[in-house]
Each structure stands twice: as C-alpha cells, then as structure tokens.
Amino acid sequence: MLSKEEVLRIFVDSGALLTGHFILTSGRHSDHYMQCAQVLKYPHYTEKLAMHLADKFRNDDIEIVIGPALGGIILSYELGRQLKVPAMFTEREDGKMVLRRGFKVFRNQRVLVVEDVITTGGSVREVMQLVETYGAKVVGIGVLVDRSNGNIQFGTKQHQVLSMEIKSWEVTECPICKEGKLPPIKPGSRKIFRLG
Ligand SMILES: [Zn+2]
C-alpha cells in the first residue's frame, strides 16, 4: 500500500501535479495544477496507483469494471487487468451517458465504477445510474484523485488514491500575485514551472 507521500511523489514526478502560479479555466488563480493524463501515460505508475485501489476491492467479488470516457478508460482497463475481470467504458451520446460498442452489463452483476478525477462526482453518478438501469449492482467506486477532499459521497463503498483540495483565489485575492515574483501562466502553455 502506498503512503500519501509516495502517491504525491508519483504525481509530481510524472508531471501530473504542478506547482507554480496558474490561471484556471474559471479565471481564478492557483498554486497547483493537476492533469491526471500525465500520470496515466506511464503504465508503471498507473499499475502502482491502480493496485492501491485493486487491493481495496479484491474481496468484493467484482465482475466488471466500468469508467466514463475519456478519463476513466485507462484506469478501468488497469483495474480490470489486476482484478482479472472485463473492463469497459461509457460514453456520452447526445449528452447522455451510455454503453456503446456492444458493451453490456447483466442483471445482478457486481460492478466497480472508476474515474480518474472527481470534482463534483457528476460523471460517476451518471455511470452508477446507467449500471442500475441494467439491474446490475454498483458495489464500489474507485477514484484516482478526489478533488472534493472527501466531501462527495456516493452512498456505496468508495476509495480514492489521493484526496486533496486545490486552493484557488480570485485574482484580486491571489497571494502569489501579491508577492509579484512569479507571473501567472495558463496550464498547457509551454512555460510550465516544475518546482515539485
Ligand atoms: Zn495570481
């Protein structure tokens, strides 16, 4: 089992968790930025992080793992590999969460729903509802990063690899702006500072 420090180290080393001065999509400023795709691009890190979740659900007789595209696909696959069960993903069709490509869930099947990042938990809830329309049972939720810092509860067994709240401020309140040493950047631009 990885310690919180080891998990954080993996996120920092992979470039998924950046430290600096960022302009978020909302326009607010933050001293951290999280991009899960950066850690999931490394199979050896993904294997380690997924094992953290697989161990929690090993005794739950999971029969299928399902994650919402795109974020949940890699995690679903890796959990399925470790738990030795099929892994599938849901997609949106006209805004509605659905199973396509011949993917099916059967009545009473025991399902583990996974997602890379949850902020409000909306996509996970949609997948849960979808699974229930098939008469299957969601027996667990596995999340890589819980950005609600434990505030979102799905009403079933749930585990996350990392739970954190990324602080952000209105521009006028931003302490890094006030210090005036590090100019703010938009994540995804080339001038990323990695202080880690
Ligand atoms: Zn700022």
What does this structure look like?
The chain has helices at 4-14, 37-40, 43-57, 71-83, 122-133, 175-179, and strands spanning 17-23, 29-34, 64-68, 87-93, 96-98, 110-118, 137-146, 158-163, 168-169. It has 196 residues and is of the alpha/beta class. It has 2 domains: 1-35 and 166-196, no CATH class; 45-164, Rossmann fold, CATH 3.40.50.2020. Helix 3 crosses helix 4 (71-83). The radius of gyration is 18 Å and the shape is globular. The two termini are 22 Å apart.
In total, the number of domains comes to 2
CATH architecture of the largest domain: 3-Layer(aba) Sandwich
Bound molecules: zinc ion
Number of strands: 9
Looking at CATH, which topology of the largest domain would you report?
A: Rossmann fold
Supply the helix-strand structural class.
Answer: alpha/beta
Q: Could you tell me how far the N terminus lies from the C terminus, measured between alpha carbons in angstroms?
A: 22 Å
Which CATH first-tier class of the largest domain would you pick?
A: Alpha Beta
**Spans of 5+ residues with little confidence (pLDDT < 50)?**
none
Strand content: 25-35%
The overall average pLDDT, rounded, is 94
Largest sheet: 6 strands, mixed
Overall body shape: globular
Please provide the ordered H/E string of secondary-structure elements: HEEHHEHEEEHEEEH
Spatial strand order of the main sheet: 5-4-3-6-7-8
Q: Can you count the helices?
A: 6
How much is the radius of gyration in Å? Answer: 18 Å
Helix % is 25-40%
